[in-house]
Amino acid sequence: MSSRVDNSARYAAEKAPPPELRAALMPGVPAIVEAAIAEIRTLGGGGASSQAALERNLRLGLIEAVDRWFEPGRPSGAPDLHFALGRAQARAGRSLDELMGFYRIAGQAMWRRIAELGASVGARPEDLYRLAETGFGCVDEVSTQAAAGFSEEQSHRSGAAHSRRSEFVRLLLREPQPPAGVLEAAAETAGVELSATLALFVGAGEMYEAFARSARDQAVLGPREGEFVGVLFDPDGPERRARLRAAAERAGARLALGPAVPLAEARRSLARAQALLALMQAGLAGNEALAAAERHELGLLLGSDPRLASEFAERRLDPLATVAGAATRANLALTLRAWLRAPGQRKTIAEQLGVHPQTVRYRMARLRELFGSQLDDPDGRFELELALRLRPFAALAPQQPEAASEDAAALTR
Question: Within the chain, which residue ranges are assigned CATH 3.30.70?
């Protein structure tokens, strides 16, 4: 450990300018720094007060940088100064590129002034070359520290903003919902721009972290009960849904979007989104990254009461349960569905199922034995088709042993 310290000290001593050159240059430090500030000032940007604060901060940082430039082995009197400058830049809402540009311009301006002073006191070229190497290395070091401070402040501000947006979502979904004035104040604190309508969206809980990173500007509430919840304001506005879909695709997540509703009905939109997510997870609502409730209204209606769907389908299709063999039951069910859509059209049904018309004739004879007059009654046919449509949604109900479970699986292929 001691040898490492000795080597570091020896290296710093080798990089330092000769004492007599350092003594000649030190009185010029204020002028060197002011030359750099003057060049930065020409770039402008920001209001008068923010520009004055920026110059004040940079002046402190550059004086410290020049001291280290001339004495690289000397411990910094303010080791966190440039880190703090980076944080201040982020707090002021200014860019990291701007700050890095300031450091670069300052380094160039200071070197020109140092070279002029060095030449005026008769410094040897090799001493000036070594000084240049040390100086620009110092600028790289302090700018790296400033960049780290900027990044930490951005991360902190992002986390705080996310927390405020999450709290706003909680308020929005509270029952009863707080008064409009409370919501407006919370929205302003969270940096959320309220709109006349909104739509709630939900996604699988395990995708929360990936989605939150992909959509930093979204108001999202962390996972609970296996899902995360978010709010899309002005859901029918230009590109609003497209941006949400793009964020979901980047994260590899699938989102269910409820209907657009007034703020006071946020919970209704959430309930619809949750129902749609259940359909998506059961394979009953496609595989798109963003599924909108209004495009799956029939599925939502059929799946709104899975237990009732299960009971209705089981009773109406009970005759099929008496047939031996899961494959035979599934074939009869598929033929029944095709016949209900095209009654009496044996050739059309055969083409649809990929079988011989004689096979359709045989199956329909068997179905007439099972269902009798229901096949000739309009209400009976409607109930049979509804039962067949409901059968896949019955899987959303709490699992119970069913003789027809294999038939239901066949119908969803």
Answer: 194-302
